[in-house]
Amino acid sequence: MRHLLDTQNLAREDAVRILDVAEDMADTQRREVKKLPTLRGKTVVNLFFEDSTRTRISFEAAAKRLSADVINFSAKGSSVSKGESLQDTAQTLQAMGADAVVIRHGASGAPRTLATSGWITAGVVNAGDGTHEHPTQALLDAFTIRKRTFGDESRGRDLAGLRVTIVGDILHSRVARSNVWLLATLGAEVTLVAPPTLVPQDVSRWPARILYDLDEAIAAGPDALMMLRIQLERMNAAYFPTEREYSRRWGLDAERLAALGPGSMVMHPGPMNRGLEISADAADSPRSTVLDQVTNGVSVRMAVLYLLLAGTDEREDV
Amino acid sequence: MSTRTVLNAADITRALTRISHEILESNKGPGGLVLLGIPTRGVTLAHRIGALIDEIAAAELGGRGTPVGALDVTMYRDDLHRNPTRAPHPTQIPAGGIDGKTVVLIDDVLFSGRSIRAALDALQDIGRPAAVRLATLVDRGHRELPIRPDFIGKNLPSAREERVNVRLTEVDGAEEVTIES
């Protein structure tokens, strides 16, 4: 594996391999000494052009647990705010000897540009680009679903036959896009639920079913119900009348939580808008996997960094 | 290229039985022993030696089995960047842990000693054993580090270019040690 840019082009074997290595990484995180010497001497640059706390610290924790050196670079207060181009930033990192670049960028496709431009030789990990993809989030979601469903029997398995429902702002959500592709590759049945205004224009080629009514989706008894964050910062147009109305029709409140079968897990990529898309009852219930997702995020990112950086340069694109 | 069989199935069983006796002798019984195999074939050998020790020292163990586990060393190797990416294997530490125990590391072939160096680093991250011993089915020489086994199935002088293959029924469906030159 040379780069991780999206889940749309990730083969089933590669996805299962990442999840299996993540299992081994998760095992090491239960030890007294959590740090492994594996990537000693490698440098991982977190190149964040958009604000992010959880993803950045998760990548930082993952790299540090593998003994890599981490350089955090955020666009605010850096040369980028002085007008430096992506090419110049990338070439600067190359000159400093970065082995991997974890990039978050507001423009869809920026990680691919970085990976294919020839500006750098480092491996590139997409940590979220525009409204395109966020592959490590989808991998950690798949890992969480697999772990909750199969427990210690998880290794080597995909998600064949499991039903996952993703609710919320599909239009702007790179998490939803990455999940749709990855979960479908792993054999899960994906249903998307959203207000009609928050469904992308053409989803006919997505391997997913679209519903507009959350109660109907809950009645179908999904194995996992993933509530997406309403991205208030992207709501520059009126996609729904009021937050209250959104919450009433598409929010997971106590009543809907009760209607959801006891075997279903409730997921949220965080940060949560409590009371908007998810109620406190749902967020804090034992069926909620929110904190598992955070823990698993570190293991999955360790696996990705390991697979990207540990081998020789004889690598192929994913 | 020629292949020669060095140990057959009966030889392997005899060697493992002798190693089991030697482990018990040097440890003065089965108390406080933890056997950790290095994946993949070391784990198979560890389980076999564990079963043999349970049989030989049945009276002293009184029905309790000798703890057997697996210790993956992939993440601790010093040659990761020289090889294609290796998939790690699961590490299983027996429930009682390794603190204060006598850990016997078990591998199929001892060559450069670098896997064992990695295993010692891995052990250090898991706990603090009272002592660490090393058992290997084949010692083929060419050590690159000051490491020597405590229990050896067979000393096999070999040339550096030769390949030593250990095949075990559980993993390979065959039972033999061969040398290819």
Task: Draw up the topology in text.
The complex is a heterodimer of chains A (318) and B (181).
Chain A: H1 12-28, E1 43-48, H2 54-65, E2 69-74, H3 86-96, E3 100-105, H4 110-116, E4 123-129, H5 135-150, E5 163-167, H6 174-185, E6 189-193, E7 209-211, H7 214-219, E8 224-227, H8 243-250, H9 254-259, E9 265-267, H10 280-284, H11 290-309
Parallel strand pairs in A: 1-2, 1-3, 3-4, 5-6, 5-8, 6-7, 8-9
Helix pairs in contact in A: 1-5, 1-11, 2-11, 5-6, 5-11
Chain B: E1 3-7, H1 9-27, E2 33-37, H2 41-56, H3 58-61, E3 68-70, E4 102-110, H4 114-126, E5 131-139, E6 151-155, E7 163-167, H5 169-172, E8 176-180
Parallel strand pairs in B: 2-3, 2-4, 4-5, 5-6
Antiparallel strand pairs in B: 1-8, 7-8
Provide a compact summary of the structure.
The complex is a heterodimer of chains A (318) and B (181). Chain A is of the alpha/beta class and 318 residues long.
Write structural notes for this entry.
The complex is a heterodimer of chains A (318) and B (181). By secondary structure, chain A is α/β, with parallel strands linked by helices. Chain A is 38% helix and 14% strand. In chain A, the strands form two sheets. Chain A has a five-stranded parallel β-sheet. A four-stranded parallel β-sheet of chain A has the order 2-1-3-4, sandwiched between helices. In chain A, helix 2 (54-65) packs across helix 11 (290-309) and helix 5 crosses helix 6 (174-185). Chain B is α/β, with parallel strands linked by helices. Chain B is built from five helices and eight strands; from the N terminus they run E-H-E-H-H-E-E-H-E-E-E-H-E. In chain B, strands 3-2-4-5-6 form a five-stranded parallel β-sheet, sandwiched between helices. The longest helix of chain B has 19 residues, at 9-27. The N and C termini of chain B lie close together (5 Å). The mean pLDDT of chain B is 94. Chains A and B meet through helix 1 of A and helix 4 of B.
